[in-house]
Amino acid sequence: MDLQGQTVLPTPTPRPLDPDLLAQQIVERLTYRMGKNAAAAKPHDWLHAVIMEIRNRVIDAWIASTKKTHEEKGRRVYYLSLEFLIGRLMRDAASNMEMLDAVQVALRKLGVDLDIIAALEPDAALGNGGLGRLAACFMESMATVDVPAYGYGIRYVNGMFRQEISDGWQVELPETWLTHGNPWEFERREASYEVGFGGMVDPAEGPDCGPHQMRWRPGERVIATAYDTPIAGWRGERVNTLRLWEAQPIDPILLDKFNAGDHLGALAESNRAEALTRVLYPADSSPAGQELRLRQEYFFSSASLQDIVRRHVQYHGDIRTLPDKAAIQLNDTHPAVSVAELMRLLVDDHGIDFDEAWDITRRTFSYTNHTLLPEALESWPVPLFERLLPRHMQIVYAINSRLLGEARRSGQFADSSIGAISLIDEGGDRRVRMGNLAFAGSHSVNGVSALHTDLMKQTVFADLHRLYPARINNKTNGVTFRRWLMQCNPGLTGLIREAIGDGFLDDAEKLRDLDRFADDSAFREKFLAVKRANKAALSALLRDRLNARLDPAALFDIQIKRIHEYKRQLLNIVEAVSLYDQIRSHPEKEWVPRVKLFGGKAAPSYHNAKLIIKLANDVARTVNHDPSVQGMLKVQFVPNYNVSMAEVMIPAADLSEQISTAGMEASGTGNMKFAVNGALTIGTLDGANVEMRDHVGEENIVIFGLTAQEVADRRAQGYSPRDVIGESRELAQALEAIAGGVFSPDDPDRYKGLVQGLYDHDWFMVAADFDSYSAAQRQVDALWLDQQLWAKKAIHNVARMGWFSSDRTIREYATDIWKIL
Length: 821
Hints:
This protein is globular. The protein is 48% helix and 14% strand.
């Protein structure tokens, strides 16, 4: 015991990494945790045993990290995100704990192939796309740069969905990643909180109650129970916590109803609670779907805020010091209701005066915006919000009164324009604007690329920026190179280490030392050989899974991301149709063999996105079975794109498609992953592409299309896509073929509406950018024919991408926003 009489736990003795001892320990885990002997063990048994042994070492560092944080009593970061797309964890943890090589040798001694068992680990279905993957990269980087942090999210049982393709159409099936449990997580029953919905609000009674203090009596309550996953940083110096919430009913079964024969009614409360954490992003095209989405967001926000406040009071006492000890980052608008929830806890539970509580709240929160699409800045119908969260609606109105009063006193706004600042949208159906709530309730609001941040000031938050001109700042996104280079591309990592040493493993900026090898012909040959091996590996995987026959010698042209019209998979497909026509019309020309690969999920209720997936598959079926283009063009849609598939596709890419309409992509992180793995980028000046061009050099990236300003000008001047299409012979012919049923003979009218949309309005400028995009693709063809020059440009991309490490991004957050480094 220490001098205060508290029990002091001994520091764990570092566990040796001798492969023979490690093999023995793995067998012990197999025997005593799995109940199997080595002779009877199946691959999944070995996987579980290996995870158990890696996990033991992670836990040692986890406990030490937690103890260090408690002793230092410093500030801690709380990262609230509806998504954490962490992928498989075994390799990630083993690599960061510097035991991957020892595990591989130990398993070899036991006659077990690490690659085979690693492939059995399910992807955690905790996200959809870039938002969730960014959160995962940030969690790993926070641990790496020694920022004590908790990530907070939802433990989705089925995630978004598992995508299958049936007759070319997307089919959504449950993602059953938790069927056999999750060996990385720990249930924390002591960290359980009640979360309420609906009910009544009454004034609080008592001599010590303040004028704004209220008593909320929810009509429905559920229990949020925590599940913790350790997230190890590089070299295991710090391990942080990802805390995910599971919803449980207060009464799992109503026995009186069950015994009376009402079996469904007896389980209704249980089913209603479990629905909260069943599926990521329930379709919100119906009122029921909207309600479930809002319930999810409040559920995880309330549980997280209760946990943060409980921890602060336990370790620091005075709730008024919360901003000094807690930095809460809102990842997009999904957790924006946390602003109102913290106000409720401060005012109603802790008796803080409203104005003081508002000051505490704003100094505690910061908000990351990820979109310039007004419809993506969430808003909720006032009647729905008030019915589900009556106390929070009162708080939103009170905040809004102060906000609008401040705007009027500033003298900058006429009454006719002040409505843009309001937390309540009065146009049409009254709605609560969650983006405005997050902005108003935070001391810092950041964009995620330089262009995106500038556009935020001019568009979605122009008026709030005028009121608070110092609040918006930029933090360009990054990715963790431990996952997206070292683990997913060991061939390239080994080649880099051979050339420049190991310094880049700890400091990604040292990749710049590779720049001089771009002029080394011997190195270029080795570089191309690594790329060819990665392409062969992807080809073998897709042959096994999809019976797709791809030529690794062809140019691998890849677009993998969420399917959305602004990301313009349609532009890519239309250009593929145009290329198909040209190859058939001009067989005498020397065409570059090209494989076009697509992957991504469409939201279940997003009709046009699902139609684009069907079109990609219809075009693939036609092109791939046409003997006149055999070997010159292949199109393939890869189903159920996820982190594990990305780890195979990205190292195999020659060309990275980053072709969103300029001014609409906040940042992108796929662009960074592709470039550091030696793919050239074809893209618009959108999101982080702008900064990538500045870093890699404009001669090493292929830029096309309208700029963000030119897009805005076209729209303002009355853009006529019909005229543009009429002036482009190749575009007109491709659209005529698609609309005319060439690729859909079973349903000739299938794509008429999709194509008609391009003629009528073309909001995403597919027609406007087509000729520029097509010309850029022919520029790519010409470059591909000179493989030495291609390799030189690709090596420059790898060497100059170090700035886009998420370690750099997190250090900027920690220094400028969280004030923790």
